[in-house]
Amino acid sequence: MNPFKCSILFLLPLIISSSISVASVTSSLSPIYYWNLLDIGIEDAWEYTKGDPNITVAIIDTGVDFTHPDLVNQTWRNSDEIPNNGKDDDNNNYIDDTIGWDFRDDDNDPSPFLGADYYMHGTFIAGLIAADDDNNISVGVAPNIRIMALRFLNDDFGWTFEDWPMFIEAIDYAIDNNADIIHMSVQATGIPPVSFKEAIQRAYQKQIPVVSVTGNSNFEPYYVRYPGNYPEVIAVSSIDKNHERADLSCFGSQNEICAPGEDVYSIEPNNIDLILGSGTSYAVPLVSATIALILSVNSTIPIEEIRSILHETCTDLGSVGKDDYFGYGLLNASAALKNVTNTYGNVSTSIQGSESTTSNHIHGFEFFDMLCIIITGTILYYKRKSSK
Ligand SMILES: [Ca+2]
Ligand SMILES: [Ca+2]
Ligand SMILES: [Ca+2]
Ligand SMILES: [Ca+2]
């Protein structure tokens, strides 16, 4: 056994959270289907943790199919809400919201509408984040955490100007119902209204990391799309198997980190086959889920500390140091978990609010389209691997 593994065995019993599960490293992942997870060092990261069930990622998207065998055990449950009694038992203004909320249809079933464009988008992302590791369909970065589904996107895989209040409601739901991370693989075509920016800032002030795309719109005007452009949001760009930036992946100074998102496999609703997808949408889940693993080691680490850990541990690509095309570099879950375990694994820290960071920020352009279409991920083809 190498010294690295010895240090893990020494450190684990000192972790204060009793719910930290010591991951048993499963058989090696297939480099064909999980090259993206292997590329961020997931097998070594799992020696620290596969996630804490008390850590929840809220996914604002097309909805999530929680009947999928890979997501049944990963479903966030609102324990304060009594199911199906027609009452809002926890007084959060949502009746019978036991597993999230469908803001698009205003009901308590956040599963995707199978007739919608890209109905698989949210489930594909949920699979990358947390697909269960106890069967043969797929496995996510943090299989022991929980997913809160907040359905928002319309049947055309987008939203319109009048939907911004609905988007804000979804963010506030995540904040008010104790999500630990807010995931949004979406991009606007212009600058969102101030009320939306304020919702992002509310999450930041509550120390809830918000993770989004740089965007899939590498054409004029060139800039990292919103919400990824906000300094409070962690913007993720997409690279391929050769560590080349994806052609459509937006770049700029707000590009914080990159992760593999091209030709990656995950799950889809109402089916137990793997499907293949590409786009910044599918790079972001690796970052969201790695943050979930970090918070599983210690849930009180402030956002800016998490960011520093990600920056310091990622693998530099392109020109030396942080650059517009790759941000600080390629996400390295293994190094991040080693860092966080050594620093925070046996130390209790208090949550400290902090002011928004300042960063270079684009100014001077206005909405050039009221239709806020997002196409941050495409599905190229289906059913490349049958389960079992
Ligand atoms: Ca309720
Ligand atoms: Ca109820
Ligand atoms: Ca699985
Ligand atoms: Ca670089």
Task: Give keywords.
12 strands, disordered N terminus, single chain, Rossmann fold, 23% helix, 9 helices, binds calcium ion, 388 residues, 3-stranded antiparallel sheet, alpha/beta
Describe the structure.
Helix 4 runs parallel beside helix 7, helix 5 runs parallel beside helix 6 and helix 8 (303-313) packs across helix 9 (333-344). With 388 residues, this protein is an alpha/beta fold. Residues 1-26, 347-375 and 380-388 have low confidence and may be disordered. 23% of the residues lie in helices and 15% in strands. A 7-stranded parallel β-sheet has the order 2-3-1-5-6-7-8, sandwiched between helices. Strands 9-10-12 form a 3-stranded antiparallel β-sheet, with helices on one face. A two-stranded antiparallel ribbon has the order 4-11. The structure holds calcium ion (4 copies).
Rounded to an integer in angstroms, the radius of gyration calculated over CA atoms is 19 Å
Strand count, sense and barrel status of the largest sheet are: 7 strands, parallel
What oligomeric arrangement do these chains adopt?
single chain
Give the DSSP E fraction (strand runs of 2 or more residues). 15-25%
Instruction: State the name of the first-level CATH class.
Output: Alpha Beta
Distinct small-molecule ligands in the complex: calcium ion
Please give the count of helices: 9
List the strand order in the largest sheet: 2-3-1-5-6-7-8
Shape: globular
- CATH level-3 fold name: Rossmann fold
Second-tier CATH architecture = 3-Layer(aba) Sandwich
The residue-averaged pLDDT reads: 85
Look at the helices and sheets and give the structural class.
alpha/beta
